[in-house]
Design goal:
The chain is mainly α. 67% of the residues lie in helices and 4% in strands. The chain is built from 5 helices and 2 strands. Strands 1-2 form a two-stranded parallel ribbon. The C terminus is likely disordered.
Length: 95
Amino acid sequence: MSRDETYDFIGNLALALYSQRIRISLGSLRSVLADADRGNDYASGRGMAAGVSAAYDHWERKDDRVTAEAIAYTYTDKHGNLAWKRYKNEESVEE
């Protein structure tokens, strides 16, 4: 998949998951992407978080705030915290 196709996939998956109030870890997203992209490997940890953040920006540039927000609230780190940095920081402030 091209970079834009990957970002589209991340956004469309986020919309489907978010509509059912499901969150998944970056590790799970990595596995789904590897399956969807014929076994190509995707970076784990912070690399995946950077990809999620880039997907958010991609959808925001398309002026699709619903999908961008679904991305921000769907993907988590291995501890279940929101993986997207801006929202992760907001949650930390609220605690």
